[in-house]
Amino acid sequence: MKPMTPSPKEDCIDHGMKGNIHGYHSTPFYYANGEKKYKGLHRVVCSKKYDLDIDGDWVTRHTCDNPRCVNPDHLLPGTHAENVKDRDSRGRQAKGDEHGDVRGEKCGRAKLKEHQVEEIKKRFHPRCHKNGARALAREFGVSHAAVSLIVNGINWSHLHGGVSSS
């Protein structure tokens, strides 16, 4: 594995276009036979710099940790395992409160408090006019889908005390 020295962010070259949810931009890539496929711009730049097969079994590693960056000096080819090791060594994995794995009411998007979720779990009774998903959703100001996800253990699964099967 080639050692990775982090690059200063001020040397980044921003692709300047709309990126996906993670910041990466896809661009048309034309093969010698005229076929067109969309590839990550960072991958295209890296493949050109290191003369690699665009479809090869490699990933692009950013020394700057900036997915919008296409500075060839900040891009290195590597394996998925190397990329994961880079991520972990910089503490960018989503584990624990300090890395973005924020659960429950600590999450900025949460509309409910833990005691409200416990109340929903305790009171829920399927297809009940008073304590069904729709009624509880109205009472607590959330969608009935949110209530269903709670009582089925998908959302707020870190809280104990599931729905009783009575």
TrEMBL record:
Highest rank taxon of the organism: Bacteria
Q: Which InterPro entries match?
A: His-Me_finger_sf, HNH_nuc, Homing_endonuclease_His-Me
A molecular function GO annotation: endonuclease activity
Query: Which SUPFAM superfamilies would you find in this protein's record?
Result: His-Me finger endonucleases
Q: Where is the composition biased (Basic and acidic residues)?
A: 82-106
Region (Disordered) residue spans: 75-106
Q: Where is the HNH nuclease domain?
A: 40-84
**Full protein name:** HNH nuclease domain-containing protein
- Species of provenance: Hafnia alvei ATCC 51873
> What does the organism's lineage look like at the top?
Bacteria, Pseudomonadati, Pseudomonadota, Gammaproteobacteria, Enterobacterales
